[in-house]
Amino acid sequence: MNITKQYINNTVPIIGTVILYLLFAYNLERSDFLNLLLLYSGLFYAAWQIINATNFSFWTIAGIGILLRVLFLPAIPNLSQDFYRFLWDGRLLIQGVNPYIITPSVFFTDLPSALEITSGKTVLQAKELFLGMGELNASHYSNYPPINQLCFAIAALFAKGTILGSVIVLRILIIAADIGVLYFGKKLLEKLNLPVRNIFWYFLNPFILIELTGNLHFEGVMLFFVVWSLYLLHQKKWFWAAVLLGISVSVKLLPLLFLPLFFKWFFKKEGSALYNVTSSFKFYVVVLGTVVLTFTPFLSSDFISNFTATIGLWFQNFEFNASIYYVIRWIGFQTIGWNIIGTVGKILPIIVIAYLVISAFLRPLNSTQDNSISPTQHLITAILLGVSFYFLLSTTVHPWYVATPLILSVFTRYKFPIVWSFMVLFSYSAYGAAGFSENLGLVAMEYIVVISVAIYELSTKKPLPFLTTKEV
User: Fold this and answer.
1) CA distance 130 to 138
2) Spatial separation of the C-alpha atoms in residues 472 and 47, rounded to whole Å
3) Low-confidence residues in the chain, pLDDT < 70
């Protein structure tokens, strides 16, 4: 009887998960929020069951995670249209055209100028890609860094004549990156003497499978290089750790944000001030040198102008799923009478940078005040809190952004990003059948829950009991 019960407990979550993912990938529209919520909730519960309520070995659960990713392989993303721009940029790049110097919309508003810029080269399936990405995306210059562009080019190289084929290539790259996160995440957890099953809060999390594997967001590729870098840093292999961190920046710019927090990592109690600063300086030179090297093929005055202008839009024009900023915006409407994003969008990043710099200098030498936690775990905790602070002050927080605090939390005592990876789903309520309209009540609920859990964990130094991971 016990064997039968154990068999049911182990197999039912897997079968249910497979069915729910198939429904999610092939029978869901973004505007159907109720269905989205029900499927996602079921997947989250099933993931928790597999992680904490089964007796599967580590590699059995890893195999389940890979199998679930393969289910998405021939699916067209249904919650994001960004992948159409990925394909557009890649198809330009393999023809030798710099994707940073022309917007897709120019091909449809001023074709002669577009052909002059591209030396007569066009994009296969241009109209379909243009309509797919949407007018807003098509009107802006690309802001995807060079290593990200390399991934787009690989998809174009192997499947330049078919959208589905290109999607499959991109998905294979993202799945491979997630397997890399699993591999180096496990090794780092072992070195930190933490439960290795912690990594499944990332690898088996439906948020990761849906937003990265399903919707083709490249945070997973960035995080692969970040986790690999942190593992090498823990092994005292600072040079290659710096190279990999630089590559991660060239996938997504976010790791630039937490560079200040590495400052005291290289400080030694017995070292002179000159020695300590020099050690940190060498690390930063290699990181930034790697970033510059990857950008070099695209560098021009037009690139710098276009790239920085597009990045600026995320701080001073775009608004989505924000928290503290929405409160500030409301105050602005009540006191001044208009949206103050143009002003606030310039100030909030300065506050974030100030917080990170102050945190870097105030962090105790090698963070040895708590001998039960390694310096590496202290560093990752500082990065987690810094990134979370940044997102709390951001004007735009797309769901897939939460992937970064989620993977960082795996290596710390704080688990509020796991809660966030569920609550961020409520941001999709904005995409209704009648068009885009944010439900600020649901946005408020998302952040009230997440911030409450974070405050609880920060004050008690303990994660929520149901989020602790057991070892088998």
Assistant:
1) 7
2) 16
3) 1-9, 269-272, 364-372, 469-472
Q: Report the C-alpha gap between 296 and 300 in whole angstroms.
A: 9
CA gyration radius, the chain: 23
**What are the distances in angstroms from CA 63 to CA 58, 185, 204?**
9, 16, 10
Largest CA distance in the chain: 75
**Contact yes or no for 404/392 (Cβ under 8 A):** no
- Report the 3 state secondary structure along 128-179: HHHHHHCHHHHCCCCCCCHHHHHHHHHHHHHHCCCHHHHHHHHHHHHHHHHH
**Which position has the token pair 């937003």?**
211
How far apart are alpha carbons 399 and 420 in whole angstroms? 9
CB-count burial class (<10 Å; 0-12, 13-18, 19+) for 76 = middle
Token digits of residue 237:
């292999």
Helix (H) or strand (E) holding 436: strand 435-436
What residues contact residue 33 under an 8 Å CB cut-off, 6+ apart? 428, 429, 431, 432
What token pair was written down for 361? 């200098």
Distance CA 154, CA 176 (A): 14
How far is residue 103's CA from residue 119's CA, in Å, rounded to a whole number? 15
Identity at 19, one-letter amino acid code: I
- Per the listing, tokens 């590496």 go with 376
Side chain identity, residue 433: A
Strands 431-432 and 435-436: antiparallel
Collect all residues with Cβ–Cβ distance below 8 Å to 349 and sequence separation of at least 6: 315, 393
Burial (CB < 10 A; 0-12, 13-18, 19+), residue 273, is: exposed
Q: How far apart are alpha carbons 229 and 243 in whole angstroms?
A: 8
- Whole-model pTM over 0.85: yes
65, HSE (Cβ side, Cα atoms, 13 Å): 32
**Coil, helix or strand at residue 219:** helix
Q: Looking at residue 94, what is its pLDDT? A: 96
**Residue 340: per-residue pLDDT:** 81
Angle between helices 416-423 and 375-393 (to 10 degrees): 30
CA nearest neighbour of 428 among 23, 21, 30, 29: 30
